[in-house]
Amino acid sequence: MFPLIPAAAVNRGLLRVIVMVEMTDFRIVTAIYSCQEKSIHRMSWIAIVLFTTICACASPARRAQSLAAAGGMTPVVIQGSVFQHRSFARLDPDSHELLVVFVEGDGSPWVRGGRKIARDPTPHTPLALQLAAATPGSVLYLGRPCYFQPVMPTECSADLWTSKRYSTEVVRSMTAAVRAFAAKQHYSRLMLVGYSGGGTLVTLMAPDLPNLVGLVSVAGNLDPDSWAALHHYLPLEGLNPALRPALKPGLPQWYLVGERDANVPSGVTARYLRRISPDRIWSYSRFDHRCCWVEAWPGLYARLTAARTAGE
């Protein structure tokens, strides 16, 4: 493994960066060039939003590296119970107790309008990574099994990003990866943030993370069976949070929903959310499944932090 870059050592105002990292038995030196130069005079999260469009010429994996670098995050490979998880992390020396863990949505499991399984499910526009890069303190963007892989490992099969994307083996491996990373880096408290299908996964991971102090679902698919039925998809073979026991009452939880979300509308999540206190469901009239979570995240995270610390 390689050392992680401290947050203070990164110039977040750069649109042109060079990332040099060392991974296990090979070395990657990646020069990342912007397709269009723009000047940035505002906060760092504006640079993070612009990276997605300015570097549209890059591959999904390289766009992710560029976006992570803009937020002071370094690539890291974490071994789970079954899979290696290609991830990004930033360790802030001033935030040595709390680690905020982000889990991405389902990415690109299908191509050609859903008629063919993708060979690589890596998301083209990783929204949860944008949230992680814009979050202060120590953060871990935990890669899902088989995502961001330069060469697909032998243990990866297409059902891990299609029908079994929320399977027991996926959830166990991701949970083991979080616990291993937190223990190695000496973090005593964890907070989970999941976007879309990542919201599904964090609710499934939560019961096996005893040092969890908060959970946030952003446009989360909290009832995959209802979601598949709505969109006339084949049923998934994995776990369903809406059919699992409720998370422990003492765990602070927040569920952020967009009233214009046509992908995961309110009817899909109703079965899960009926057991959640209404004051923990934050609804936003202008938001859909993607808009406007990244732009609003600095304010949302500040509100979440205030709500969490008030309850401690």
Please give the structural blueprint.
Layout: E1 17-23, E2 26-32, H1 44-54, H2 60-70, E3 74-79, E4 84-90, E5 98-103, E6 110-111, E7 116-117, H3 127-133, E8 138-142, H4 168-185, E9 189-195, H5 197-205, E10 212-218, H6 224-230, E11 253-258, H7 266-273, E12 281-284, H8 293-310
Parallel strand pairs: 5-8, 5-9, 9-10, 10-11, 11-12
Antiparallel strand pairs: 1-2, 3-4, 4-8, 6-7
Task: Name the descriptors.
312 residues; 8-stranded mixed β-sheet; Rossmann fold; globular; two-stranded antiparallel sheet; alpha/beta
The SSE order reads EEHHEEEEEHEHEHEHEHEH
**Ends distance:** 35 Å
Count of the separate structural domains:
1
Mean pLDDT: 85
Number of strand segments: 12
Low-confidence stretches: 1-43
Beta-strand portion reads: 15-25%
Q: What is the CATH T-level topology?
A: Rossmann fold
Query: CATH H level: which superfamily?
Result: Alpha/Beta hydrolase fold, catalytic domain
Secondary structure: helix percent: 25-40%
Largest sheet: 8 strands, mixed
- Structural class, by secondary structure, is alpha/beta
CATH architecture: 3-Layer(aba) Sandwich
CATH class: Alpha Beta
Rg to the nearest angstrom? 18 Å
Shape: globular
Number of helices: 8
Strand line-up of the largest beta sheet: 3-4-8-5-9-10-11-12
